[in-house]
Write a structure and sequence with these properties.
The complex is a heterotrimer of chains A (about 140), B (about 290) and C (about 120).
Chain A lengths: L5 E6 L2 H17 L4 H22 L2 E7 L5 E10 L7 H4 L10 H11 L2 E7 L2 E11 L2
Antiparallel strand pairs in A: 1-2, 2-3, 3-5, 4-5
Helix pairs in contact in A: 1-2, 2-4
Chain B lengths: L10 H7 L1 H14 L5 H4 L2 H18 L14 H17 L3 H22 L4 H45 L3 E4 L2 E7 L4 H18 L3 E8 L5 H17 L2 E5 L3 H9 L8 E3 L2 H17 L2
Parallel strand pairs in B: 2-3, 3-4, 4-5
Antiparallel strand pairs in B: 1-2
Helix pairs in contact in B: 1-4, 2-4, 2-6, 4-5, 5-7, 6-7, 8-9
Chain C lengths: L5 E4 L2 E5 L6 H18 L3 E5 L8 H16 L3 E5 L3 H9 L8 E3 L2 H16 L1
Parallel strand pairs in C: 2-3, 3-4, 4-5
Antiparallel strand pairs in C: 1-2
The chains are: A alpha+beta (about 140), B alpha/beta (about 290), C alpha/beta (about 120).
Chain lengths: ~140, ~290, ~120
């Protein structure tokens, strides 16, 4: 992780999902993001944190301030050590999953944020998302 | 070939020895260039000061052994200085060629002095000229890149401002707002329109929003998709959207494209849309 | 755990969600509400979500399901007070609420619900 300030939230129980999305919103708010972007980020965190708990049993969420002199940026990494996602391309394709499966959460989260990356293998899944905006 | 007593001069030495003269010649070249407004857009003093800074940074830069890689530490100062200058040129409204000529006129001036100083050492002159040429060309590229980036940033900011201006939201009546859309609706703008509209719906507690698309020249599948999204989002807040001003051509296109607009309330003219909006509001009042 | 209060106003049940709910809280709320509809024979339900600043896919599904379930039990549901940001995030995710009536605020919601109930009686 970077030297920037940030928080780490263990994802074990459902209330941790709430804590993660609230932290995301708070950090985005502190960095001057508009309320629409705060909500986008909080919603995306909620989807991904729930996935981690639901499919891997538990996970970890890191939220960091990755701003530089030109851009304000909040980055969120959600990591778990579960079974991994067998066919990630399929899971990211619209219409693959039923309306509430793993894929729907991933796709929904992806559409809400400016950056989205996913690495997955048996034993480790890591989703990285970020919202950013140019500074004045 | 050359006189034995004279050690070969490098470009850096030539620059150091002739700095004042070079500076004067360079500034004169820039100002006297035809079609250039540089003299009008900034004072000779400012220009002279910038040029002097560049020459000083260049003196450091030209002591480097190799000139092929501009990321070398010797070049850091001159590179960042050139970036700073071209960014400020872009902001002041200089044209690309006016900005580029600042760098390239330096090349001519430098080459003149090199020819003079190294006239008796053709081989050295040759290598130094190639070196200088490459180096200044590279500086020119950096200058231009920075200039373009700065322009892009300015254009982005201006278009943001324009979008705000081009999408006014009017309170037409109690509980009715109206958005006259004018101009091309692309993805970025439509996102802003949706955001804006939802915010205003809540602010005015509008039960009906009229979206007039008379002024939108092209309505294709994507624009129609955005319109449907807008309607869906407003519905979730509890607000009806009435879209007015589709032209017959647009109606034909949308049907040919197989767009399902059945979930959307439309009216041909703004006048009919306003009547519809009042009817919706009136109906709700009557239900009390 | 937080329990969402459900108030009875004549034939209508009113519940206001004011805090961020866990998935479990949301499901408990669904149970409570349906039990209340059944026990009170309510004809309508208003769910005020002014206080919800995140509605993700799970919460959206719970809201949808609750409305459809209440309908089966004979009550109409009007959802009111959704925040603009929340609506925006939902459509961007490609989601929408299906089969739920919505209103801007509690008052509009009440009017809408009453007019739906009266329409049904005719």
């Amino acid at each position: 992780m970077s030297t920037h300030s940030g928080v780490k939230i263990d994802l074990r129980k459902q209330s941790d999902v709430v804590a993660a999305r609230q932290s995301g919103r708070r950090i985005a708010n502190d960095l001057g993001f508009r309320s629409a972007d705060q909500t986008r980020l909080a919603t995306a965190i909620s989807e991904l944190a729930r996935n981690a708990i639901q499919y891997a049993g538990e996970g970890v969420c890191y939220i960091t301030d990755e701003s530089n002199q030109h851009t304000a940026k909040v980055q969120v990494v959600i990591e778990d050590f579960g079974p991994g996602i067998p066919d990630i391309e399929k899971a990211m394709t619209l219409g693959f999953s039923t309306s509430d499966g793993l894929g729907a959460g991933l796709q929904g989260a992806k559409r809400l944020v400016h950056e989205f990356a996913i690495e997955t293998e048996p034993g480790h899944t890591r989703v990285t998302i970020a919202v950013s905006r140019p500074k004045e | 070939m050359s006189k034995e007593k004279q050690t070969p001069k490098t470009i850096a030495e030539i620059l150091t020895e002739n700095e004042d003269k070079l500076l004067a010649a360079w500034v004169k070249t820039i100002i006297s260039q035809a079609d250039s407004r540089t003299g009008a857009l900034m004072t000779e003093q400012e220009l002279g000061k910038q040029a002097a800074e560049v020459l000083a940074a260049l003196r450091v830069a030209l002591t480097a052994e190799k000139f092929d890689d501009l990321t070398r530490p010797e070049f850091a100062e001159v590179v960042s200085l050139m970036q700073e200058i071209s960014a400020s040129r872009a902001e002041q409204g200089f044209t690309p060629s006016e900005t580029a000529s600042f760098v390239f006129s330096l090349k001519n001036t430098l080459l003149e002095y090199m020819q003079k100083e190294l006239s008796d050492q053709p081989e050295l002159l040759n290598t130094e000229v190639v070196k200088t040429n490459n180096f200044i060309d590279n500086l020119g590229l950096i200058t231009f890149e920075t200039f373009a980036k700065t322009r892009e940033k300015i254009i982005y900011e201006q278009s943001e401002a324009l979008i705000e201006l081009a999408t006014p939201i009017i309170q037409l009546w109690d509980e009715i707002i109206m958005l006259p859309l004018v101009g091309v609706v692309d993805t970025r703008r439509s996102q802003q329109i949706i955001e804006n509209m939802l915010e205003k719906i809540v602010q005015y507690q509008a039960v009906v929003a009229i979206l007039d698309v008379t002024g939108v020249p092209i309505i294709d599948t994507r624009v129609a998709q955005h319109l449907i999204q807008t309607v869906t989002a407003a519905k979730m807040l509890g607000t009806e959207v009435v879209i007015t001003g589709f032209s017959p051509q647009v109606a034909q296109t949308l049907v040919v494209l197989n767009m399902d607009l059945s979930a959307i309330r439309t009216k041909g003219t703004l006048k009919a849309g306003v009547a519809e909006a009042l009817r919706i509001v009136g109906k709700q009042i009557a239900a009390q | 755990m937080a329990k969402i209060p459900i108030l009875k106003l004549g034939d209508i049940l009113l519940s206001t969600i004011q805090i961020d709910l866990t998935d479990q809280d949301a499901l408990v709320f669904q149970d409570d509400l349906l039990t209340n509809v059944k026990e009170t024979n309510a004809e309508g339900v208003i769910i005020d979500i002014t206080g919800l600043d995140v509605v993700d896919s799970f919460m959206a599904r719970v809201i949808n399901d609750t409305a459809n379930m209440a309908h089966i039990l004979g009550a109409e549901v009007v959802l009111c007070g959704m925040r603009p940001d929340v609506a925006l995030a939902l459509i961007e995710m490609g989601r929408q609420l299906i089969g739920v009536e919505t209103a801007l605020n509690l008052q509009e919601g009440m009017e809408k619900l009453i007019s739906i109930i009266e329409g049904k009686r005719k």
